[in-house]
Design goal:
The chain has 281 residues and is α/β, with parallel strands linked by helices. The chain is built from 8 helices and 11 strands. The strands form 2 sheets. Strands 8-7-6-9-10-11 form a 6-stranded parallel beta sheet, with helices on both faces.
C-alpha cells in the first residue's frame, strides 16, 4: 500500500498516524528527499530507507505529540545507533507530521440555521453528518452550496423516522448539535444522546423557556442532573447579536470549533520500548 492510500485508510478508520518525510539529505543516503512513509500505532506503510534510520523514524513517530518535528540522523558507523549500523556516510533529516483523527460533527436539522451552519462547517477538516427527517431539506439542489467543494467529508442522512438512531452510528467523541424543526424531535434526540456516554459535546438550540421544559422532561425520564448538564443551551458565542440564520450559524460554528479544538485527538503516542533510550539528535 502506498503512503497516500495509507493516509486515506487511517482517516476512513478514524485512526491517528504520523506522516514521515525525508526532508533533506546530505551525502549518501538510502532514499532521496521527498520519500515518505506512514506510521500508526500498529503498522507502517512505505519506507524512508530501512535499517536504523527507519526504526528511529518509527520510534519517534510513535512518541510524537501534536506538533510536527524534525529529526536528523547521521548514517555513519561512528554515529550512535540502536537498531544496526548504517554507514552510507550521509545525513538525513526527517519531517514528522501528526495525522490526528478528524473530528466528527453531526447537525440534526438542516433548516435555515442548519443549512447556514453546514455551509460554514463544510469548509473545515471534519467528518460532517447532516441529518434531517424531511427529505426536501436534503435535496442536492438545496445542499449544493455545502457539497460543491467541501473540505469536510460530508455524509447526508435522510431519516424520516427515528432520526435519533443515527446517534448510535456516530464515532466516539462526535459533537452533536440539535436544531430540528420539531421540539418533540429535539427532545427525543437529547434523551438518546444522553444515553450514549461516548459522544462529545451536545448542543441544543432554543430559548430558556424551551430548555426549562426539556430539563424537567429529561429528569423525569431518569437522567441525573449531572447527565443533563452535558447539554449546552443556548449554543453559540455570547455577545453575537442577531436572529438572522447566518448570524446564528456564525456564532454556533465559532463556539463549536472552539470545543472541537479543545477535544481534538492527537497522533499516536507511545513511549520507547523498555531499555531503549530515545534517539538523540
Amino acid at each position: 500500500m502506498d503512503w497516500l492510500t495509507a493516509v486515506a485508510r487511517l482517516r476512513e478508520s478514524r485512526a491517528p498516524g504520523v506522516l514521515v518525510t525525508v526532508a533533506a539529505v546530505r551525502g549518501h543516503a538510502p532514499r532521496d528527499a521527498g520519500a515518505k512513509m506512514v506510521v500508526s500505532l500498529d503498522g507502517t506503510w512505505g519506507t524512508v530507507g530501512g535499517g536504523n534510520l527507519e526504526e528511529i523514524a518509527i520510534e519517534r513517530a510513535r512518541a510524537l505529540g501534536d506538533e510536527p518535528e524534525l529529526v536528523t540522523v547521521a548514517l555513519s558507523d561512528k554515529a550512535p545507533y540502536e537498531y544496526g549500523v548504517q554507514c552510507c556516510g550521509g545525513e538525513v533529516t526527517l519531517l514528522l507530521e501528526p495525522l490526528p483523527v478528524v473530528p466528527a460533527v453531526a447537525v440534526f436539522g438542516i433548516g435555515h440555521v442548519g443549512l447556514e451552519l453546514a455551509r460554514i462547517l463544510a469548509r473545515h477538516d471534519l467528518d460532517l453528518h447532516l441529518v434531517d427527517s424531511r427529505a426536501d431539506q436534503l435535496t442536492d439542489e438545496r445542499l449544493a452550496p455545502v457539497l460543491a467543494d467541501p473540505v469536510a467529508r460530508v455524509q447526508v442522512h435522510d431519516v424520516p423516522v427515528l432520526p435519533e438512531l443515527i446517534l448510535t452510528t456516530l464515532p466516539a467523541g462526535a459533537h452533536v448539535l440539535v436544531m430540528t424543526h420539531d421540539h418533540a424531535e429535539d427532545a427525543a434526540l437529547c434523551d438518546a444522546a444522553l444515553r450514549i456516554p461516548a459522544l462529545g459535546s451536545i448542543g441544543l438550540i432554543g430559548s430558556a423557556a424551551k430548555w426549562a421544559r426539556f430539563e424537567s422532561k429529561l429528569r423525569a425520564e431518569g437522567h441525573s442532573a449531572e447527565a443533563v448538564a452535558r447539554i449546552t443551551t443556548p449554543i453559540g458565542l455570547d455577545g453575537v447579536d442577531g436572529k438572522e440564520p447566518a448570524v446564528i450559524a456564525v456564532s454556533v460554528a465559532a463556539a463549536l470549533l472552539r470545543e472541537v479544538s479543545r477535544s481534538a485527538t492527537p497522533a499516536p503516542r507511545r513511549s520507547p520500548a523498555p531499555g531503549r533510550r530515545p534517539h538523540q539528535d
